[in-house]
Structures are given as C-alpha cells and as structure tokens.
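Following the same procedure, the fold was encoded as tokens, giving this record:
***
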Amino acid sequence: MAFVNKSGGDGEETSTDVAAGAPPHPDFDFDPNDPDQVKVHYDLAGWSIDQRAELAETLAENAVPHVWEDDELVIPEHLEGPVDQLFEQLEAEIGPFPVVLGDDDAATEFGLDEWKRADLLSLQQALVEAEIPHRWHDTTLFVATDAEHVVDDLLDAIEAGEVASLDEDTEAPDGALHALYSAADKLRRDPTHGSSRDSLLALVPRLSPSAPPFGMAGGPWATMVGAATALVATFENGRPTDEIKEAANALHGVCRDWV
C-alpha cells in the first residue's frame, strides 16, 4: 500500500527509529513541501469516504502529522512503522481494504457500461474480499492480468446470480478457502500429514456446494467442495497414499487460482 520517497536533500537514505505505536515527537515540524523531508505515500484511491473518515479520526487521535495529496496520504518517513500498525488495526476493525492496481501494472480491461448499479456494488465488494488488485475508470474495470480468469468467473457468476450474498448465514466458514488450499498443499507433499487430515475432517462436513465464501462464484466453489469431499474420503476409507496425493493435487489445483 505504501511507497517511500528516499530522495533526501543529501541524496542519502535517512531513517529515525521510532518504537512501534509511539506518538510522534511533540517538537517535530512536518513540512511536506520541504525537499529534504523524506516522506511516505499511502495510495488510498480505492477507499470509501467512510473508511477515509475513520482513518482521519485515527490519525488525529494519535497526533500523526500528515497531509493529503489527491488520493494519497503523506506522512514523515520516520513514522512509517507506527502508521503501518494503525493501518493494521483499521484493517481488523473496518477492512478489508481494496488492493489498488497501479497505472503501470499489467491489466485486463472489462467494460461494464450496461451493468446495474447493484451488480457493480456486488462486484466491487467481491474484488475487495478476494484481494484482487483493481482500479475503476467510470464503469470500466481494470484488474491484474494474472487474475483475469478469476474475474471472468466472478462476472459470469454475478450475471447468473450465483455469487454468495451478504447474509453471513449462507456463507462458508471464515477462512474455509485458505484452509482447503493449505491442507491440500501439505497432503499432496505428505499424504500422512496429521494436522491437515484433522483440519479437513473437521471442516469439510460444514461446507455446502451452494454456500461459497462471499464474492466467490458458485460453480468453482462447488467444484472445490467436491474435490475436498473426495480427498477426505480417501483417508477415511484407508486408500493408498498415491491416491491421497492424487486427490490432494486435484483439490490444490482447483483452489490455487482463488488464493
């Protein structure tokens, strides 16, 4: 999220250690127009008005000197550590936050001029939940090229009404997708991995093919649940380790593009 301008007046990097969470020195005078002042820029282009208001309040409460330059928050470089911690706290309280796609990053373009506002809002929240780098220009969406196929599935699912709703009771358990991926990754390497087996044995019975995590297309999720169920069956039925590896590889493969 942040990038640091290291171009101090003497051309050398400057750094002042500050204890994590410590307030700025009361005598520090932050002049963003001083060319010798090393600054950190946080690109918040994707943040909502409410999220920015929460951030502004948090910065004021912690007496953090700062200025805004369009969509960027600018702070003195020596406060980067404490401010990063404030961002982490906000992420836990009001996140997740959008992952902004840089102007120079490889991007795939989707024209969504004919989409309804409700569908665009669902798409935006799904992109945020899935942590897919993206940016908007009016109703044109640009996403990271390596996430193109995932977004294709997501667009198809929204148009078909198959994206998980905001009703938490109809969603998969928190962290289910990452848990499936992690367990499959370990079991494809070591089919006797005990904690991964236990994790799947506890998780898979709680999953429904028709209740994906929010923002995920129903079709891919149903495929994942099917693959996870098949994997669990291999070690429940005492199948040979090569069959367990094969089933774990199958689950890993269908999860990989979504994590």
Summary: The chain has eight helices and seven strands.
